[in-house]
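Forum > Structural Biology > Help requests

Title: Can anyone predict the 3D structure of Dioxygenase?

Hi all, first post here. I have the sequence for Dioxygenase but no way to get a structure on my laptop. I'd be grateful if someone could post the structure tokens.
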Amino acid sequence: MLDQIKGLHHVTSMAEDARTNNQFFTNALGLRRVKKTVNFDAPDVYHLYYGDETGAPGTIMTYFPFPKMAQGRPGTGEVGTTVFSVPQGSIGFWSDRLNKLNVTGLKTEETFGEKRLNFAGPDGDGFALVEVKDDSRQPWTHGGISEDNAIRGFHSVAMRLRDDGATSELLKFMGYEVQEERDGVKRLTIPGGNGAHLVDLETMPNVSRALPGAGSVHHVAFAVENRAKQLEVRKALMDTGYQVTPVIDRDYFWAIYFRTPGGILFEIATNEPGFNRDEDTAHLGEALKLPQQHQHLRALIEQHLQPLEV
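Reply #1:
Sure, ran it for you. Structure tokens for Dioxygenase below:
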């Protein structure tokens, strides 16, 4: 069993409109845009990152907004719900706030003994807020939401699977332990994790496979401290039979990818070097930052990309 992985690093999804996406995360949810860059493989498409003040691992929601992209169809073989941690006693605030902003899919419930608010993103994305006692992570509070209510980072992701057996064994190999099972949902945790160390597996044997599109999670990334630990994880996964990509430089972290038995794309990402490698922390997410290989296209890219602010 591995011990290098400490929880979630980031979740990357797809959207249909960059400006709407930016408005939702920075205004409705009060997160900080920590990086404005482009898709490495499609430089005419933004890659937007939202999180806490520094974009700490375990807080980072990222998006590829593909203009006029068709909406995805929910199903199995995907991350169905991305869940954020909020302070105890704040669900009422969030319910009122999101209702006033005409956010859809609002539903309050209790799961695993935790008070929870489900809601949908602009593209039908599955989200939830869960009240967590004593989450010590410091929130971004310059988005108009007080520290008493502000999002701390990820709480968990919920994966929809027709059969959770092989994915459960993979997560155990990655260092997760089964914490509890309720109502067809298996919760796994990493002891001593980074605060974003829970994964829920939802077994849905009669649900058809998801079709990716706007509102779908593209991949989920797990955090390791540095490149040396990442290489240890890569070797262990390959020795187990997984087809793992070479290490890819993503400017703000190094990444490896592999497909899980349940069909979900996993990434292992390093905590280094971070989002302040090319911007001061005080100005994260303000300027358009381009990967070195696309710098010569800056004029064309800037002309093509939709302005994020109205």
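The mean pLDDT is 97. The domain at 8-304 is CATH 3.10.180.10 (2,3-Dihydroxybiphenyl 1,2-Dioxygenase; domain 1).
Shout if anything looks off.
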